[in-house]
Design goal:
Structural class: mainly beta
Low-confidence stretches: none
Number of helices: 0
Distance between the termini: 13 Å
Shape: elongated
Radius of gyration: 14 Å
Order of helices and strands: EEE
Strand order of the largest sheet: 1-2-3
């Protein structure tokens, strides 16, 4: 997912989230990667993410 507009873009030049899920014999393993560039050096570091579907 690449964010191109919205609330996140008030704080970041770019924001990209990659989610990888691998099936295991008992359940699944998830990996979350976030890449971002802050608009200002002292801007907030993302600490949580809410899915709105």
């Amino acid at each position: 997912m690449v964010v191109m507009e919205g609330d996140l873009m008030q704080h970041y030049k770019c924001y990209k989230a990659t989610i990888q899920v691998v099936s295991k014999s008992e359940g699944s393993l998830g990996k979350w990667i976030r890449e971002y560039e802050k608009l200002q050096e002292d801007g907030p570091t993302p600490s949580k993410f809410t899915w709105i579907l």
